[in-house]
Each structure stands twice: as C-alpha cells, then as structure tokens.
C-alpha cells in the first residue's frame, strides 16, 4: 500500500520536458501548495504554501525595517473618483478592477473598486500628514491582498486575487526618491539571490512596459527552467505626478511650498511560482533552504529495530535546538514512500538513520537538489547540516545561473532575432534604438517583449536590431509568464 | 515653541469624564493610531497603530502555532450561492455585506460578496481535502481583513473593514471540537490577561446573541473604563451543521461515513480599541508593555551639558541589547514637550538621565500608569527596567480589575435592575429563566443586553429577574460597544 502510494505519486506528475505547464500545475497541487476555489482565478493557499509565504514575508520585512520602513494598513476599497485622480494610473488599472456597487441591500452612490494597487490611497493619506520637510521622508509599506480582474489565470503567476507587499514612499528631493527606488530594487535582487537562490537581471523597463503613472520602472527579471522570463519584482519612481494630482505639498527648508517625490515597489506570491519554476524537477518541488517550511526531514530506516526511533528522535531534537526547521517522520509509511513524499514537497535535506548507521556512529544526509549522499559522523551533525543546507542553496543558485547562461542568446540583426525567437525560449540580447515602434514590431512578429534595459549594459553593435538605425541601448528580450 | 507644543497637545484632548466618546477619538487621532479615509467606515492604520497590531499578531500567532494550528489564505470573495448554503449563516450576514457586481467593464453572472467571515470558504475547501479520519483534525487559521457594511462606525470598535484572525477547525468527534472551542477561548483570555493586562469574563452567549449558524458561542467580555462592555473575542462550536450543508464527510475508523465537527474563533483590531478604553487616561494612551511598540523612551535632561547625550546613548544601547524595545529622543524639543508626547503615545516607561543623575550614578524611571518615579542605580538598570515594565503591567491589570469590581452590580428583581441600568454603566449580575422573551424585554425597557452566562456561576436567587419564574442561570448584563 505504501509502495502503491509511492508509485502513484510519481506517476501522477507530468514530466517537465513533456509538458511544462502541466508539470507546474501538478506540482502546485501535489505538493499541497494550493487548492482551486469556487471563485474564478482565486486560489486557496494551503498550509505548506502559506508557510513558504510566511518565510518570505519574515525575511523581506526584516530587510524593509532595517532600512527604516514602517508597516501600515490602508483600506481595501478605492472610491471611483479617487482612482481617477491620476490620469495615466486610472487608464492602466480601470479595465481590470472589481467594482463594489452595493452595501447590504443598498446601492452605493459611488462605486468602490477593490484595490488593484494602493498609490491613490497612500496619496490620499499623505495629503493629511505631510506638511513640512520635517514630515519627510515617509517610508511606508503594507502587506495585503490586491485584486486584478485577469482573464487568464494560473496559480501564483497570475491570479485575480494575490498577496503582496507594496511600499509607498515620499521624499523631499528627486535624488532621494531615485535612490530609494534603486535601494529597494537591490533589496529585492539580494533577497532573490540570498534567500530564494534565484539569479535575477536588474534593469529598467522601457516606457511601453512602465507602471501606469510612473516616470521610471525598474525590474528584476528571472529566467524559469523553460527559458521563459518571470518579472519578479518592480520598483517605480513617480516624480511628483501623483503629488500634483493629489495636491500634496510641503514647506521646504527655505519656507517655500514643494511637491514631494514618490516611489512604490512590490513583490508578491508570484515569487512562489518563480521558486517552483526555477528549482523544481520531475520529482516535484525543490525549495531553497532559507524559505523552506521544513529544512531537514529525519527518516528512520528499519524503525522497528531497537533504538532506531529513539536515535532519530535524538537527532531531531539536536537539530531543532539549533534552530533548524526539522521534521521527524516516524509514521508507518515505508522509507521509500517517505522519500518520494518529501522529494515532492521539496525538503532540501533528508537525514536517514538506521541500525547500520547507528553501529557506525553516523547518519546519511541526502541533498534534494542533486541527490548527493553525504555520510556524517553523528558528533559532527551540528556543523554538517548547516553546511549541507548552504551547499543545497549554492547548488540551486549555480544551476539556475547555468540555465540562464545556456538560454541567453545574442541577436545582431532582425533575421537572427526572429530565428532565435522562433527556436528557443530564453533571453535575447539585442540593441534597440529607443523607438516604441520597433518594440511593437518585435512583439508583433516574434511574440517576444522587452524585459529590461539592464544596468550591466553590453555593446553588441551600433544598430537597432529591428530598424537598423543607430542604437546605444542593449535590451534583454524574452517571452514572459 | 516647544512649550507651546506641549500646551497645545494637552489642551486638544477632551477629558474622559467630560466626553468619553470624544476622548476616545481624540486619542486615536493624537496618538497617531489611525487616520480617516475617503471610504466611509474604513480607516488608515498608521505606523504606530499597526505596530501594536503586529505585536498582537506575533504573540497570538505563537500561541496558535504552539497548539498545532497552521495558517492559510482563503479568497476574499464568496459567490452568492456559496454564502447561501448554510441557512442561518446567510440570514445573519447577507444584510451587511459588500457586493461585487462587475469585473472591469463586465457584469458578473453571479455576484460576489467581500468576505464578512469565511466559514463558507473554509467548508468549500475542507470538502476537497477531508476524506478520512486520518485527514482530521484540520486546525487552520488565517490573518486577513473582512468587510461588514455597518451603518455606524468607530475606529477599531466597529468599522466597515477590519483586520482579524479567524480560526476554522474540523474534528473527528463532537467532544474534540468542543474542547477546541474552549481551548481557544482560554487562549484569548490568557492573552488578554498576560499581554494586554485586560481582565475578561469568560462565558457562553445566550442563543439570541449566538453567531449566525453556531450551536454554541463563547465569549470573552471586557469592561471599559466607562463601564461599557466590549465583546473582545468569540469562539464558536458549530456541530456538523455546515458539514451537512456543504456535504463534507469522512470515513471513520469503523469504515462508515461521518460528518466532521467544526469550530471557528476570532479576535480583531477591536482589541486595540479595548486597550485604549481600558487603560487610557486624560494624558492619552497607556500601553501594556507586552504590545507597546516602544516600551521605554530615554529622555536626556539638559542634553547640551557635557556627556549627557553620550550617557543616554549608552543606556539606550544597553537596553536595546537586552531585547527591550527602546527609543532615544535626542531631538531639540524640550524635556517637557517630550514627556507630554510619549505620555500621549502611551509609552509604558520613561527613563530620564541628566547631569545630576550622572553624578549620582543613577537615572530615573517614570511609570506611565501611575507616574511613580523610581530612582535606579545605573549598574542595576538591566534588572530594574524589566521589573518596572512588569510593575506597569500588573498595575494596569489591577486597576482594570478594580474598575470592573466597582462597576459590577447585583440585581434581585426587575425594579432593582431597571434602577441600576438607569443610573450606571457596568455589569449587572442577575438570574435568568432562559426565555428569550425576558431577554428581549430587558433590552427593550433598559437598553441593556445579555453579555454572557459566565463559566463562574453565582447563585443570586431562585427567580428570573424579569418574569419571576424559576431560574438557575446567572447572566451578566450590560451595555456594549
């Protein structure tokens, strides 16, 4: 029965290479991350999925607080008139919001939308609390859910409702606001590298791909296992556009009135989709240790033999006392079933302990990322486990970086671009003249969009890959989730 | 100017005894807990207010996890047909929900309500994941915001949108579910006592005051400074009513099909209103140390004198290293202004350090609750501060308990009941026959509602205070927020 269970489980996952999209939905379901709900495009985030989100929140929240940010909570509703205050913003979001028209049995005099993002709400509040340069900067963040009425949805990647954080800050000077915008982008990139083992490209979005109402949008772009890009976080510089629209002014050091300069930045549960598609394999989820709900699972071998369960319990306690998130599975299921189960769940490290190991005074660690077995003297367990977790992290990061290297192409002219786009998913590096018409044409003819103008520019040629006119900017292009 | 600031601040708070309601709104505004928003009944929770909520969350979440509960996230929308599945439940909530009727420019085929509570969503999910007794218990909780279309709103106490946690659990047996219901009520009561310094009555709600769809509702009732009750948390036992309505069944140990037994329980940002109205005074907020964003504020006296700022900084670092939430205010504002400011913000302990103190090798701690000054040798600071924080906590709890004692009355007959209800706010203990007609009559003639049938029963007489028929149950009655 346990063996059947194991077989069944492995059979039920589609292979990545066969059908990546189906593999993805298999993993989110079988690893018990989500359940579909009765509302189109809204998902139930189950305990194991939510525990990943909690670890992401805890880590990011500490980074935000260490850089002086404070959490707040804004209402979830935006009156229609408030949403309309900033012209570009409302144009971008109005087509995809959910409208509340009735409270109880009463029709509302003004429709309320469920926040798709909260710039307008923050500005409405900032107007009340910013009066002097002494009130600046305001460095606020909120953790909440937002709603966007997407037509096509996929768990974590694109859903009608999703969880996120949105930072909204106000500054005395443009320079300070621009610094904040980049600081937060760097925090996101560091977090992706250090905690999610995901390498990201940092860069600026083209005007066409900018956030509605922003003067500049910066992005971190990750590449998934299949070569498709995932926009994983964005940071926006708004100038004083919203401040003017909302009439937010402050008295400066020279006693004159000024508009403050604004930023916003966000990452969402989409990151969980990024983790799955960056690190997962045909056995299921593979979780980076920093955010794994369970970092080490202890599995007793031949647990009916005298002393095995006691020893397993002892090792569990040792690791737990060390602050490692460890689980002991002493159920009646077979070791084989357990191996498959925790591989599916992406637990970074498995610890096996059986009678032979005990005799030899050792145990076996098995890495989830490459299945490498490490035999460890029991007295060295306390240092071996953190080292092995670090090795898993490094291994995941390296493998993701290698995948990105292998799937990054360079195109010198349009013919080459088209051929690459037709044949491969991946990033295409190519020069761009800066004309939106070329961006549109590339999208139309190849289905590929601009990802970003990277901070680390390269010079590929002097000519735009599309129109052949002079070009100085290199752009990363690619299909996206 | 600083002195003016101080004067102005004190002037602007209404005295509690003059107008308690106005005092309350003054405090929530002046202590910078909330700002009003453009949406009726929705509030902006500002950094200081949100930091209190974060501390409440952290404390409660640890208590939930220690008792085996896991966090999840359910959609914020409930399709109308789903809300209607449990008859009593929909009757209770349908009149006060917000309805989403449009997504983008499209009219929805079925209206969605913004969750007022999530029993229906949890059941919809439980149906998919509960099949066998091995799948039980399910011990889930979620932190989120909910919406109830209240006519009259007050910050924290009753608002259209509020933050809360809602636990929803499923059990194999009635006994286990009933134990869970009481366990969570006890956790709430312990938390109120240990972390909020608020004494609460534990008891059962009468049938009339039960949650829509519940078989039994338990409550913790706190008494505010003005003698008015605040229902501060509830825990419900549902039996298998929802399970039957949603067709959730499991195969039992005997291989037969059963309906699981359900509970739910919740507390909300209303607790912050309870803290304000239990502990606050005419100088503003008074925060219990366990949830105060700042536990100790260090205020240098004559800070221009040599060494004062350095010494203040040193004490700040000492306390910080100890894990105490401490703030150093070395701004140019006068000490008097600072005293008023942190009294308004309810900081439990003020530490004053000036040249004379330094000479004497001491500093002065001032308790927020009773303004007691404690002179402390600097080398004893590390033990003196935690002791003083504990003393503030104990002092607050005792004072609240004393207030409840002073405002708890006993009524033997209806005449006496009416006279007390007319003259005083407070709890009235009186016998009740169990007939809802008597409850209705009392409410109608005196404006007072049943609070709870307390776990600690007393025998006051053999007769119902209203109809004079035989009665065995003592009920607490009182006006409520």
Can you walk through the features of this model?
The structure is a homodimer of 481-residue chains. The first copy, chain A, has 481 residues and is an alpha+beta fold. Chain A folds into 3 domains: 13-279, BirA Bifunctional Protein, domain 2 (2-Layer Sandwich), CATH 3.30.930; 291-391, Rossmann fold; 408-478, C-terminal domain of ProRS (Translation Initiation Factor IF3, 2-Layer Sandwich). In chain A, 37% of the residues lie in helices and 27% in strands. Chain A is built from 15 helices and 23 strands. Chain A has helices at residues 2-12, 20-30, 47-66, 80-83, 87-93, 119-129, 174-194, 241-246, 270-279, 308-321, 335-344, 355-360, 381-406, 414-423, 436-446, and strands spanning 34-36, 43-45, 70-71, 77-79, 98-103, 106-114, 138-147, 161-171, 200-204, 216-223, 229-239, 250-251, 257-258, 261-268, 296-300, 326-328, 349-353, 362-367, 373-377, 408-410, 427-432, 449-454, 473-478. In chain A, strands 3-7-8-14-11-10-9-22-23-21-20 form an 11-stranded mixed beta sheet, with helices on both faces. A 5-stranded mixed beta sheet of chain A has the order 16-15-17-18-19, sandwiched between helices. In chain A, strands 4-6-5 form a 3-stranded antiparallel beta sheet. In chain A, helix 1 runs parallel beside helix 11 and helix 3 (47-66) crosses helix 7 (174-194). The longest helix of chain A is centred in the last third of the chain and has 26 residues, at 381-406. Chain A is globular, with a radius of gyration of 25 Å. The two termini of chain A are 39 Å apart. Chains A and B meet through strand 2, helix 3, strand 3, strand 4 and strand 5 of A and strand 2, helix 3, strand 3, strand 4 and strand 5 of B. Strand 5 of chain A pairs antiparallel with strand 5 (98-103) of chain B.
